[in-house]
Design goal:
With 324 residues, the protein is α/β, with parallel strands linked by helices. The chain has helices at 10-23, 67-75, 109-116, 122-131, 135-144, 150-165, 178-185, 191-197, 199-215, 236-252, 282-286, 309-320, and strands spanning 2-6, 33-35, 55-59, 79-84, 97-101, 222-224, 227-232, 257-264, 267-273, 292-294, 298-304. The chain has 2 domains: 2-208, inorganic pyrophosphatase (n-terminal core) (Alpha-Beta Complex); 222-320, Diaminopimelate Epimerase, Chain A, domain 1. The chain has 12 helices and 11 strands. The strands form 2 sheets. It has a 6-stranded mixed β-sheet, sandwiched between helices. Strands 2-1-3-4-5 form a 5-stranded parallel β-sheet, with helices on both faces. The N and C termini lie far apart (60 Å).
């Protein structure tokens, strides 16, 4: 059996599509298993039951967050191929583990897969990089793959709406389930054909436009030099826009840290962006809280209890507020 465990955001989806296209397989090959979910559903290997001789590919979820189950699978005789760009901690040395992990600011999982595949499906890698807010790297990838002018802008928008769709407390918050999107995307070797021909792309764009119109009326809850915090209402549209809103505010306020706090049934979800010259990475700050993690420029807290919200606000402002 082959198992593919992948983050449901743009980067995870585009990493998966690159690999499956390169392997020449349809998504629903007999015996294959897909394990995915919303963006914050990252402990995917806990849901993987496999036996000796099986192969598991893991894409765009932290090794550190899946360490116990990764070791369980390796001990069971499973071969694991792991691509990721989040904080990993110590990477196990094991003959059945092939790890391509780099937490450098210039990388996302789609770029790591593109490197492994020597650019065989680079246009999809560009889409993943655009979705992960690596605009400079994404444009370079697109242009090196022969995409020009409006085509680059189309790939950028595809990455943004794929990423936007993944933010939600559950699959019911999303316009499209990630496994369904993966099946649709694999019908198109060129993502520009997906843009021009897929009805799902049009549906995502309509949802994105409607939600972002609402998000434009959101005002920061706390705004101080260097630290901007926005608390969103308990609405599906707000959860879907949280990542895009964080990226937009980070672009508009490059010297400030941005925290987007979204309600969920058991507390809050936090999306954090920090300036490029920040003395502390977003991932390091978020790891102060249980379920926190990510990468240096962009990270989050998957479940922040309501009783800890005041503590988070205080820590955020104390860490990032600029002083004279």
């Amino acid at each position: 059996m082959r198992i593919y465990a992948f983050n449901g955001d743009a980067d995870g989806l585009c990493a998966l599509v690159q690999l499956r296209l390169a392997e020449g397989d349809g998504l629903e090959s007999p015996g294959d298993l897909l394990v995915t979910g919303v963006k914050r559903d990252i402990q995917l290997l806990a849901r993987v039951q496999a036996k000796a001789g099986d192969d598991c590919t893991v894409l765009d979820v932290s090794l550190d967050s899946n360490r116990e189950d990764l070791l369980r699978l390796l001990a069971s005789g499973v071969r694991v191929r792991y691509f990721d760009h989040h904080f990993a901690g110590e990477i196990p040395h094991h003959p059945r583990l092939e790890a391509s992990i780099d937490a450098g600011r210039e990388f996302c999982t789609s770029i790591l897969v593109d490197r492994a595949l020597e650019g065989r499906h680079r246009r999809w890698a560009a889409v993943g990089a655009f979705g992960d807010h690596l605009t400079k790297q994404a444009r370079q990838l697109a242009e090196s793959a022969g995409v020009k002018d409006t085509g680059v802008d189309e790939l950028a928008h595809l990455g943004i709406v794929l990423n936007y769709n993944a933010y939600g407390e559950s699959i019911s918050d999303l316009h499209a389930a990630p496994d369904m999107l993966a099946a649709e995307m694999l019908c198109y070797r060129d993502p520009l054909d997906f843009v021009h021909c897929s009805g799902w792309y049009s549906r995502l764009c309509r949802g994105y436009d409607d939600d972002m119109e609402r998000a434009r009326h959101v005002v920061p809850t706390h705004a101080a030099p260097g630290a901007i915090l926005v608390e969103l209402p308990d609405e599906a549209w707000a959860r879907r826009t949280s990542g895009t809103l964080a990226n937009g505010l980070a672009d508009a306020h490059p010297t400030s840290a941005i925290a987007i706090v979204s309600r969920r049934t058991d507390g809050y979800v936090v999306s954090l962006r920090v300036p490029s010259d920040s003395s502390i990475g977003a991932d390091e700050f978020c790891r102060r809280f249980p379920t926190g993690g990510g990468r240096r420029a962009a990270a989050g807290i998957n479940r922040l209890p309501s009783s800890h919200l005041a503590e988070f606000r205080h820590a955020f402002e104390a860490q990032f507020r600029l002083t004279d």
